[in-house]
Write a structure and sequence with these properties.
FAD, 9-stranded mixed β-sheet, single chain, 9 helices, D-aspartate oxidase activity, binds flavin-adenine dinucleotide, Rossmann fold, 15 strands, alpha/beta, 31% helix, 6-stranded mixed β-sheet
């Protein structure tokens, strides 16, 4: 059988993770990644990249646990190796705090992060507006380093990369045998899926090298994430808002909320500001369909709609997408024998 040609659309953390998984696991395939924006210009590049997740309503909990665990183990392995600084992956310890005791005190991912426990009364004294909290060690993955590192790994596995905008999946049908769609918000057009919606997020990068622990309000609105070169503070969650410009009102609100949690931030310098649009969906779409494209039945594997947790879940969902590509390959081989 001739070499099967796979194309992955999307150069964010989901696209590159998926492309690496396919290229490394399936050497009989030639794998090309197409994207109209690459690092440092993707949404993934600006993400704070702290690993923990929300629960999606309609994805079986077992699947969500597996996505989280596979991603955590993959990034932990990198964080504890000599490639960690180049890949931008580090361990990060800190607190998630709540104004009221949440209905679910122990989230499903608590078994996979390191040293998860409830905060003591002594620790909570620092946060007088908050009654309850989690302390744990997780991972921070900085995509401005991680994406170029993944691209190198992909090329080493024989992958090809091309910067190009895809107007429709139709145009790929004559050059490829399997399409993998990781186009995030672009899936509104490419997969005609209006269920993917932008959720605008604004963050500031600050110089505060004395801060070593993350602090996250459990409502997901306010967070302080120390990283390798700076501290990311945020944020906003504005649904259906397409604005990519910095909003001065949001800047003031972020600084005010974060300084209330960590007063030393009032003395810190703002290095830069950034806005990104989370590709949100009720549930991420990780599934396969057969599309009739230019009179030919083609397998299309979708992997998009990760919302505010794409860095966290990218590797786990990429492995599921790999399984769907493998399934398509088996079917093609069976048909070739008939
Ligand atoms: C402020 C903020 C903070 C965040 N913090 C975290 C965090 O702490 N932890 C976490 O896990 N997640 C976080 N996220 C979420 C995370 O950024 C996203 O879930 C993730 O980046 C989605 O990755 P993606 O690859 O699907 O999309 P993207 O990074 O947007 O990549 C999509 C790719 O598809 C390409 N594309 C789209 N349409 C086409 C087309 N027609 N033709 C060719 N190419 C196309 C784009 O050019 C791009 O290369 C945050 C997001 C924001 C905005």
């Amino acid at each position: 059988m001739k070499r099967v040609r796979v194309v992955v659309v999307g150069a964010g953390v989901v696209g590159f993770s998926t492309a690496v998984c396919i290229a490394e696991a399936l050497p009989p395939c030639s794998v090309t990644l197409l994207g109209d924006r690459f690092s440092p210009d993707t949404t993934s590049d600006g993400a704070a990249g702290l690993m923990f997740t929300a629960q999606f309503p309609d994805v079986p909990l077992e699947t969500q646990r597996r996505w989280f665990q596979l991603s955590f183990d993959h990034l932990l392995h990198i964080a504890q190796s000599e490639v960690a600084p180049e890949a931008g992956v580090m361990l990060s310890s800190g607190w998630q705090i709540f104004r009221d005791v949440p209905a679910e005190q122990k989230p499903f991912w608590s078994d996979f992060v390191i040293g998860f426990r409830f905060m003591s009364d002594g620790e909570l004294k620092r946060f007088p507006d908050h009654k309850f909290g989690h302390a744990f060690t997780t991972i921070k993955c900085e995509c401005s380093s991680y994406l170029p590192w993944l691209e190198k790994r992909f090329r080493k596995a024989g992958g090809w990369v091309e910067q190009r905008r895809v107007e429709s999946l139709q145009e790929l049908s004559s050059s490829y045998d399997i399409i993998v769609n990781c186009s995030g918000l672009g899936s509104r057009e490419l997969a005609s899926d209006e269920a993917v919606q932008p959720v605008r997020g604004q963050v500031l990068k600050m110089k505060a090298p004395w801060l070593k622990h993350f602090i996250r309000d459990g409502d997901g609105m306010t967070y302080i994430y120390p990283g390798i070169h700076s501290v990311i503070v945020g944020g906003t969650r504005q649904e259906g808002d397409w604005r990519l410009q910095v909003d001065e009102g949001d800047t003031r609100s972020i600084l005010e909320r974060c300084s209330r949690l960590e007063p030393s931030l009032r003395r810190a310098r703002v290095l830069s500001q950034w806005v990104g649009l989370r590709p949100s969906r009720r549930n991420p779409r990780v599934e396969r369909e057969l599309l009739q494209l230019q009179g030919r039945s083609m397998p299309v594997v979708h992997n998009y709609g990760h919302g505010g947790v794409g860095v966290t879940l990218a590797w786990g969902t990429a492995l599921d997408a790999l399984g769907l590509v493998r399934q398509s390959l088996h079917e093609m081989q069976r048909q070739a024998k008939l």
